[in-house]
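By convention, the token line describes the chain's fold. To illustrate:
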Amino acid sequence: MTELSNVAKGTEYELFVRGVYEAVLKAEGVESIKEKHDIKLVGKSGCEHQIDVYWEFKIAGQTYRTAIECKAFNSDVAIGRIRDFYGVLADVPNLNGIFVT
């Protein structure tokens, strides 16, 4: 049996999280507008940010933009990773965030 690389494990985990999130939204009856895996968003600083899972959905006529940061770690997540994600959320207008590990 071939062992997956860290990148492959990470991608597999991102796709798993995407599937879970999709199931939750469907169960809640949420109107999904756009869903993407591994995209780039440009912030107001001009920096390009990699987003593991991106979702736009609508609830009661309001559109929500959500970035999901996935970390397939088997140890504690360093505070720097959380701060980096917070920086992305602060830089990209009207973006909500979920950090999954």
Notes: The chain has one domain: 6-100. The mean pLDDT is 89. The CA atoms of residues 34 and 45 lie 24 Å apart. The radius of gyration is 14 Å.
